[in-house]
Design a protein that fits this description.
The chain has 249 residues and is mainly α. The protein has one domain. Helices cover 82% and strands 0% of the residues. The protein contains 11 helices and no strands. The protein starts with a helix and ends with a helix.
């Protein structure tokens, strides 16, 4: 790995950590970056998942004020997210690499649709009444589990999917829901990352660079990310996502 490649991967980690905290699609930055530098798709996905875990932690710390008072709803959703992430990681490791390469372009395409639709989803979520209700119905809980499976297997735009599920299920402020999303998506990455670290081939150099960058990005996202122009942010993610699809196909 050349110094220029290392710097590029580190910068991608910063961008991904910021985007994951604010929106939830940072994998569409780091995964294509690793592909561009010649890493095989499954190795790139595994290394990316491990690398983004520290950024989720720093993002959650930055959102600690919004997380206050959400313990009753967080614990059960954390359990189902962990179970879903475990299932998704096992699927990634048991299915052949060719299946991942065939499936992921479709996942990225769905993720890009979610990113483009995010303003509509945000308006839909914002139109609900905010009563700070701690209860979550069974159907949305199943949705959180399935998003965890998706996150453990690949994970691009998992945060947007979670925002849609949680926002339609919970009467609360959108920033508090986003804080909960950061925690749940981070747990999925964590449990999948632990499994990958034990049994999968990891490009530890790349994972370490992404981790270092994502920590900084998580802090930036929690503190300043809400000021980023959302249209520009979505355009960058869409361009990168399309590039990843072209690379895989």
């Amino acid at each position: 790995m050349t110094p220029l490649h290392a710097l590029a991967i580190f910068a991608a980690g910063i961008a991904a950590g910021t985007i994951n905290t604010v929106v939830g699609s940072g994998t569409l930055i780091t995964f294509p970056a690793l592909l561009a530098f010649g890493y095989p798709p499954v190795t790139a996905n595994v290394s990316n998942t491990i690398g983004l875990v520290p950024g989720s932690v720093s993002g959650a710390v930055g959102y600690r004020r919004e997380l206050s008072g959400q313990r009753r709803r967080t614990w059960p959703l954390a359990v189902v997210s962990t179970l879903g992430g475990t299932a998704g990681a096992i699927l990634l490791l048991t299915l052949p690499a060719s299946a991942f390469k065939a499936i992921v372009p479709g996942f990225i395409a769905v993720a890009l649709v979610l990113i483009v639709a995010q303003p509509w989803l945000t308006r839909l979520v914002g139109s609900r009444r905010r009563r700070h209700d701690q209860r979550v119905a069974p159907a949305p809980t199943l949705g959180v589990f399935l998003s965890g499976v998706y996150g453990g297997y690949f994970g691009a735009a998992q945060g947007i999917l979670l925002l849609a599920i949680l926002g339609l299920a919970i009467d609360d402020d959108l920033q508090r829901i986003n804080a909960l999303k950061v925690v749940l998506a981070g747990l999925v990455n964590l449990v999948a990352g632990v499994i990958f670290a034990i049994v999968a081939h990891v490009a530890w150099g790349a994972a370490g660079l992404i981790a270092a960058g994502s920590i900084l990005g998580g802090v930036i996202g929690a503190r300043y990310g809400r000021r980023l122009p959302p249209i520009a942010l979505r355009m960058v993610i869409v361009v990168v996502g399309i590039a990843a699809i072209v690379r895989l196909v």
